[in-house]
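>> received
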Amino acid sequence: MPNRVSVSSADFIRNVGYWQNEAMRNPISITHHGRERLILTTPDQFLPQGSADPVDTEAMLAPFRITQAALFENMDEAYLELNETLEITIANRAVENISMRSQEQLLGAKVFDTLPEPFGSIVADRARGVLRSRKPSSFEAGAPGGLTFTGRLVPLGSNVAALLRNSSQEEEPAASATSC
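>> returned
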């Protein structure tokens, strides 16, 4: 980039129109407490030569999407992503074993309508709390048939992600070890 003109963030805020016009000629370096924090420039100066788009986002994300899909489909834990109305936006195959519904049936359904009660209501209640507080939550809950599930819910952007695991079959650790 061509030589930059440096301006304090306070001066930039006071004279934003002026600095926007100046950025059309040369990049503007906006400083905060003397340190360069932002650069204001035109798209022509920002984009690589001959590029119409700064980044091919789809091409860049393709390897991550492949990895994510492989992880989701091979996890032992059930993975759900819920939006602010508690509708399921993403579900992996492990959720099918808990809900007895296909992934296609799960997408768009309310979480409390898809999981066995009282487990579904507990997940919904915890998800509301995570959406409100933006803090993770862990729990253990029972379900019909004497099943026990453990769950961990975490904020994920404006959504909440839930990892659920059937912990009914887990073995209790030995109460005490004997030594000779």
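>> Helices lie at 9-14, 16-23, 43-46, 57-74, 94-99, 103-106, 111-114, 119-133.
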